[in-house]
Amino acid sequence: MGGVKINDTKADWLLAINMLPSLLELSLYSCELEHLPSSLTFLNFTSLHVLDLSYNPFTTSIPQWLFNLTSLTNLDLSFSNQGGVILDSFGSLVSLKYLYLGGNHFYGSIPASIGNLSSLKELDLSYNEMNGTIPKIFGQLSKLVKLYLLENSWKGVITEAQLMNLTRLEEFVLTTNNKSKPLVFNVKYDWRPPFKLKILHLESCLIGPEFPKWLQVQSELTYVILKNVEIKGTIPEEWFSVISSNLTHLDLSNNQIKGNLPHQLEFPNVTKLFLQSNLFLGPIPSNISDLMPSLQYLDLLENLLYGKIPLSISKIKHLNILVLRRNNLSGELPDHWNKSQMDLLVVDISYNNIHGKILSSMGFLGSLFILVLSDNNLSGEIPSSLQSCSIESMDFGGNRLSGNLPSWIESDIFMLHLRSNLFSGTIPKKWCNLHKLRILDLAQNNLFGGIPDCFNNFNAMVDHNTFGYKTIENYTEKAYIVTKGREYEYDRTLQFVTCIDLSGNALTGGIPIQITSLNRLGMLNLSMNHLNGSIPKNIGNMRWLETLDLSNNRLFGPIPGSMSSLTSLVHLNLSFNNLIGRIPSGNQLQTLNDVTIYKGNPLLCGSPLPTKCPGDETSDGPSITGVDDKQGGDDYERIWFYSSIGLGFVVGFWSVCGTLLLKKTWRHCYFRF
């Protein structure tokens, strides 16, 4: 009955089940059940062997009558909204072979009564809130084959006592998120475990600093993750040679492992190799396509690798993800990319010393989704062949690329990060069709001309619902974005960033009013250009704007009063322009009281500047601001009004008095002298 929505029946379903004394198996997973009666007057289905209540949003706790089902061999309560400590009563289900309690809210330690389950083959306590210890009596589960303890906050120590009798154990998965007191493996250096593991996943617990002997004797491993377990030094090459023929998945990331990558051993079945954030050095094996022909994921991020990128990488047919970010690799990009690599989704070779051009053969990578080549020494133009790819994120920042910006960019692109290059020319009008664009960074180039007046077509900066960010398994995209006056690295939150940075170019003309319709834009930087005209009056419509930098331009006129409506604004820079009048106040602008925000605008007045506006000398009270440019405009008109009065008085006075002084007959007529 799995998947049948019987939530409206409440307890009636259980009364019906209780009338089936010969029932052996009951499967009610994903039935939207919410209620389990706490008691039954008579339990009539005690012959039950299999009970599956997983994936139900129960609002009641595990009832006591369940522990009277002593014939149960399989109990699945995964993702059933259970919580509290795991009851000692589970120890009464002595016939259990399979116990699944993952995806709930259990906390505390594993009860010692679990040791009574001598027939147990599989135990899953993953994705709970377990914050206690693993008892020594755990070692009595001699028939245990699979043990899953992922994503909890385990603490304490694991010694030989918890492991010494697990002779049949094949799959051991334990990860902890307890950063203050992580779980520690404390076994004798020469201890040889009684089991032969096929799957081993240990994460964020301590098994180092040396690569332990008890792991070196595990010769049947096919799947290994030893992530953030504080292993230092080198890994014996003998261990690699023992497991190489069977291994399909190897993850040794986030340790401090040293030494060279194996250059002779063949790993014919490895599909995923993650060695990021270690201290591996030396070159990447030149014949890597022969050593690992089945490779799909290769992540060597943040190591000390040097030398050239092997040409043979372009021969690995089933490669999905290639990440070589933050190493010391040099030479040119590998050539001979071909159509046989249609599975390649990500190429990230950023933060190396790669020189030369972006090769046109990369255009054969039709499925290429993310291309990150930033912070190298690449030169030349972006090849037009890349329009044959499916690129949705392009990061070429921090190179020496030149030529015009590519007008062929497709409308599905999410990020266009081309800052700090030598691009020239104008911003292509065709880019107004980039409806999914959320990050446009063209800062620090040699661009000229005006800002296109069609940026309002960037729909993803107007309505977040128009954009669906695609995540890629085993890859987290990273990018540096300058916002709030500083450079920040975004990774998992990159999908939520919206920004336009055109700073440090030679753009001219005014700020298009259409840009103010981007009410979901988080950062706008147009500084260090040659923009003129006034700040758009309705800039206050950009309610999500956190950073606004218009400094070092030639903007003039008053600061619009609507700027006080920017309630999310935390960084503002309007310095070194020709702005005039009273600085608006109210709302978020009250907190932005740094005088350097308005520096270099000698005709601005009002708080936070020491320069007072006309009329402020007679009143110490707060001024009432209008909307748009009314406030600044009123001050500007008031200056002209008083100036006109003064000028009129001077002209009138000297017109009469000067004439009288010069005309003697007039003077006699009026004053008799």
Can I get a quick summary?
This protein is mostly beta strands and 673 residues long.
Can you tell me about this structure?
With 673 residues, this protein is mainly β. It has a domain at 231-391: Leucine-rich repeat, LRR (right-handed beta-alpha superhelix) (Alpha-Beta Horseshoe). It contains 7 helices and 43 strands. The strands form 6 sheets. The protein has a 22-stranded parallel β-sheet, with no helix packed on it. Strand 12, helix 3 and strand 13 (223-227) form a beta-alpha-beta unit. Helix 6 (630-662) crosses helix 7. It starts with 11 loop residues before the first helix and ends with a helix. Residues 619-637 and 666-673 have low confidence and may be disordered. It comes from Quercus lobata. It is found in: Cell membrane.
